[in-house]
Amino acid sequence: MRTGTWLVSLVALLAAGSPLAAQDYADEPITRDAGPAPLEVIPIPPSTPQDDEAGEVEESEEPVFGDELEEAMAELGEEMPDFGSMFGDAFKPEPLTPEQEARLPTAGRVVDRIFPNGTYARMVDSTLAPMMEGLMGSEIGTPRGEVACLLGMDEDDLDDLDDEQVAAAVGILDPVNAERAAATTKMMLEMVSSLLDAIEPAYRTGLTRAYAKRFDESEMDAMVAFFDTPAGQHYAAESMLIYADPEVMAAMNEMGPAMMAVMPDLIRGMGKIAEDFPEARKFGELNEAERARLSDLLGVGQAELESLQPDQDDDGDDGEYEDGSFLES
Fold first, then answer.
1. Are 78 and 145 in contact (CB under 8 A)?
2. Domain housing 311
3. Given 93, 124, 289, 312, which residue has the most CB atoms within 10 angstroms?
4. Could you read off the pLDDT of 292-302 as tens digits, one per residue?
């Protein structure tokens, strides 16, 4: 199973289910049953470059994986630093002004109402659990497909079997199929739950700072006054959860057709850009004067630069049509 891939996607989707993103400001743990509590603004630590040698494993100590899940999780662990640095590079907030800093307590009152402690736990219970069950079902596949896969047959070869016969075949080939799927779903759900609990304090801090930047004191006072009304309390309780509502998530199905609709224009646009702007040249395509100048700039001899040239087949391109569309390698 490509567990790591869709787990990261799922967590990112759920964590980004609100209109304002938060930085990774802290990892203070919370309990899932915690109720609303005054928000403590967590200071932002300065970013520090990662030690490239941290966690390095010598070639002679390569881990031996017992099963596919362990291998997938190890692969996920290798990808997570890049995943985290991607968001760190993309979102670098400007420091708050003194005026904005002074608005943090009021912004905290707003966040206490729209994103209280335990909001992610509510998301897990109401949205993530059924979503993960569906995802796990798609990963496992249909019983008919599993039987065909285990026997090295095509699914069409089993068309003469009814569902009861297929279920009986699954019982012979994989008698713990349902139990394994349930255990996997439970384990993944607990893992995601713990992860979201860990990042929730940082998210609340980021949300507070964002409100302090975007709204003035009187605007946030008006929000709090509204949130203290019956209608406002209901809205505040649902304002973040609604972004993970099945109705909203189902609407994302329209993205596929919409992307296909714009793809021809995208391909034509890329082709036009390729026509208007020449491709970058390799060292061997430069004239003598350009080679000499580049050699002097880099402090590397021309012969060495010539030898370092990538082969034509290894330049990273998959191949390109004249209209700008691409061949898959």
1. no
2. 264-329
3. 124
4. 999 999 999 99
Distance (Å, rounded) from C-alpha 200 to C-alpha 329?
A: 41
- State the total domains in the chain: 2
**In terms of domains, do 34 and 92 share one?**
yes
Contact 147, 169 (CB under 8 A): yes
Q: Are residues 187 and 42 in the same domain?
A: yes
Give residue 255's pLDDT band: very low, low, confident or very high (50, 70, 90): confident
Together in a domain, 42 and 11: yes
In angstroms, the CA 142 to CA 164 distance is 13
146, 177 Cβ separation under 8 angstroms:
yes
- The model's confidence at residue 313, banded by pLDDT at 50, 70 and 90, is low
Nearest Cα residue to 122 out of 240, 251, 277, 250: 240
306 vs 324, residue with greater confidence: 306
Tokens representing 142 are 């249909």
Give the alpha-carbon dihedral of 306, 312, 317, 320, to 10 degrees. Answer: 130
Angle CA 247–249–255, to nearest 5: 115
Q: Taking a C-beta distance cutoff of 8 angstroms, is the pair 11, 189 a contact? A: no
pTM passes above 0.85? no
- Residue type for position 191: M
